[in-house]
Amino acid sequence: MNRKRYWIWLSACLLFMAACGGSGRMDRSKVYKVYYINNSETGVEMHEKELTAEKADEQLDELLLHLGTMPEKLEYKAPLQMGFNLRSAYIDGEKLYLDVSEEYRSLKATTEILVRAALVRTMSQVEGIKYVAITVEGGQLHDSLGNVVGLMSADQFIDNAGNEINAYDKVRLRLYFANADGTALVATNRTMAYNTNISLERLVVEQILAGPGPDVADVVYPVMNPNTKIVSVSVRDGICYVNFDENFLNQTYNVSSEVAIYAIVNSLGELTSVNRVQISINGETDIMYRESISLSTVFERNLDLITTVEP
Question: FRET partner for 239 with CA separation of 20 to 30 A, picked from 26, 30, 220, 274?
Fold first, then answer.
């Protein structure tokens, strides 16, 4: 059943005061992990909090209050106390939508990703919440590369060192885009700094969606509808599961079906963690892509589509 409601901070405050009245050993069944920003704003750290609320809606209220409460000793920073306001929050099915004030756009790129990581990892622990979306004054959120940030799941943010989520690393990706007539793939290399909160698999998909960089834009061409939203990317047993929204089915570029699919598959296949790729649309695989390729297929790399032309 869909649940949709705006959060009232006063009710959360009352829950918090009730929590402060108790003492003694924590009830582990009520303990949640709440993620905060470290003082140097280079990572996210986890602290356990015992909730008093029993119902999911009330637990979300209580978690939001924790995320907006600075610790007395200032040993870390609350993600909802980083210079912007939480305007509203509501649930629609298994999705939680958080709308923030315009000041959110002024966050440093590194800090903004850490805030995202803290919010998503904390809030998605509540039963029934699988995805979190952040909007700014009702508008879409974009990352530092200008890409739309859509629905986010906890599994796209990775713990790298104990209970701390670290910031940035450098990576060299091998990405495949279309040739001039859209009938073959051309391999390109892209070296970039990336936030290690995001898995490499998701990074690859994001970069394919973003299209070719300016250094190769006159040689290779995009393969995915730029309005496509990435719902989730995860890996299990060597299979990378890529879940898009319905815009993926609407091809806006003059590329073949095989080129569009295998640009993703071949690019992901360059990672040591990926052997095969499963593509779904809003979680469904019983779909024909452009009436020619069944998405129920678990795809393996197709080297026959790669052209010898080098950018």
Answer: 220
